[in-house]
């Protein structure tokens, strides 16, 4: 299935299937924001829940991979 490139360009999908997004409110009007707030807005956040599920479907990346748990036998 063809994925939506316009969405994929704005997000980063990690090898484990996490969807990472940039935060808003950093483009302009920075004078009214504190240094701490601007610094924290630089951080990349993970998308979770219903919205992440919709994005996965739209970009055609499928479901998130489950991490393997090692067991000692």
From TrEMBL:
GO biological process, one term: translation
This protein's UniProt keywords: Ribonucleoprotein, Ribosomal protein
Entry keyword annotation includes Ribonucleoprotein: yes
InterPro entries associated with the record: Ribosomal_bL35-like, Ribosomal_bL35_sf
A GO CC term assigned to this protein in UniProt: ribonucleoprotein complex
Family affiliation: Belongs to the bacterial ribosomal protein bL35 family.
Descriptive protein name: 50S ribosomal protein L35
Organism field: Candidatus Woesebacteria bacterium GW2011_GWA1_44_23
Source species taxonomy: Bacteria, Candidatus Woeseibacteriota
